[in-house]
Specification:
This protein is of the alpha+beta class and about 325 residues long. Helices cover about 20% and strands about 25% of the residues. The strands form four sheets. A seven-stranded mixed beta sheet has the order 15-13-12-3-14-16-17. The protein has a six-stranded antiparallel barrel with strand order 5-6-7-10-9-8. Helix 6 packs across helix 7.
């Protein structure tokens, strides 16, 4: 637990989180669901191995994806992933970012999304050096994931919650609301430019319901604190707030990139995991708590054996 005002840290269990919440606060969760976005197959013409990471559906059954080997996939190439899932390469993505547009085909006429969910693999981050298995389809998912499965990564700060803990928080008088931001690959792409303003985030789709916006706005108006679970919840809220911090309901796409010295307009407290160096995530956290303070906290976490990244431990910033 990092206290920005006192410039102190404390070491607690995640089950102690309710002690840092009060009646009238609002806990904001990202309810996106991870889908089996990693497809392994072969190129029909040569039998060569092909791997796709589906990123977003550009049109019905047409997907923007990352491909390996991308340079050898040309328009018209046919790919096979299973007896009931094939694909045709359309061409490069309009953004010309090295991705490919592909048309997914279920020859038997079944539902494409349902078939992908069955045939595909959980897209674990590359630093998890093992193949995904069936247990990851449940473990790499928050207990409150709901609705359309459209994320290529879990909002990992939420993996620590259990239904029992959420019930305890709600029973204490804390508002618990969900927003949705479908996590794309851009969240994890390292920043490789000298000037942060030159870094371009990949766009991610969000939805904020009128009920969620109203709950956040009523919390702020009554003096309660808005506690965001994960950097994706922060991006969703801060991307859709005016200068006074009033959150707007709606849906759309965000390319927001938050780094020091950004002034947060909505979020007062943040639950987050420990992030990769040079990532946009660690830069958002640094904007929230101060770069030197965050780096010192990371050094302390390393010294004490905290686990980093997706299946790792958590930090609460107050």
């Amino acid at each position: 637990v990092l206290d920005r005002a006192a410039d102190t840290t404390a070491h607690r269990r995640f089950s102690d989180l309710p002690e840092y919440l009060a009646p009238g606060d609002c806990l904001v969760l990202n309810s996106t669901r991870v889908f089996s976005a990693r497809l392994l197959g072969t190129k029909d013409a040569t039998g060569a191995r092909v791997e796709l990471l589906l990123l977003r559906e550009a049109e019905p059954d047409i997907w923007a994806c990352l491909a390996q080997p991308a340079k050898k996939l040309r328009p018209g190439d046919r790919l096979t992933f299973a007896d009931d899932l094939t694909a045709e390469v359309i061409g490069p993505t309009p953004e010309d970012d090295g991705g490919r547009l592909i048309r997914l085909i279920v020859p038997t006429g079944g539902d494409v999304r349902a078939t992908v969910e069955r045939v595909g693999h959980t897209p674990l981050p590359p630093y998890i050096r093992r193949a995904a298995d069936e247990t990851d389809k449940a473990r790499y998912q928050t207990v409150y994931a709901d609705g359309t499965a459209a994320s290529v990564a879990a909002p990992t700060a939420g993996l620590h919650f259990t239904p029992e803990l959420l019930s305890k928080i709600e029973a204490s008088g804390v508002r618990v609301v969900t927003v949705t931001l479908h996590v794309g690959l851009g969240t994890f792409r390292p920043v490789e430019v000298d000037e942060l303003t030159d870094h371009k985030m990949s766009r991610e789709h969000y939805e904020i319901s009128p009920a969620a916006a109203d709950a956040v706005n009523r919390t702020r108006a009554s003096g309660g604190r808005v506690v965001a679970v994960g950097t994706t919840s922060v991006r969703c809220l801060e991307s859709n707030a005016d200068e006074s911090g009033v959150v707007r309901a709606g849906s759309g796409w965000t390319e927001a990139f938050f780094y020091p010295p950004y002034r947060f307009r909505v979020v007062d407290r943040l639950v987050t995991n420990f992030h990769m160096p040079e990532s946009t995530l660690v830069m958002l956290v640094s904007a929230f708590a101060g770069r030197e303070r965050v780096l010192a906290t990371y050094r302390e976490a390393i010294r004490l054996g905290y686990r980093f990244y997706s299946y790792g431990d958590a930090m609460l910033i107050v």
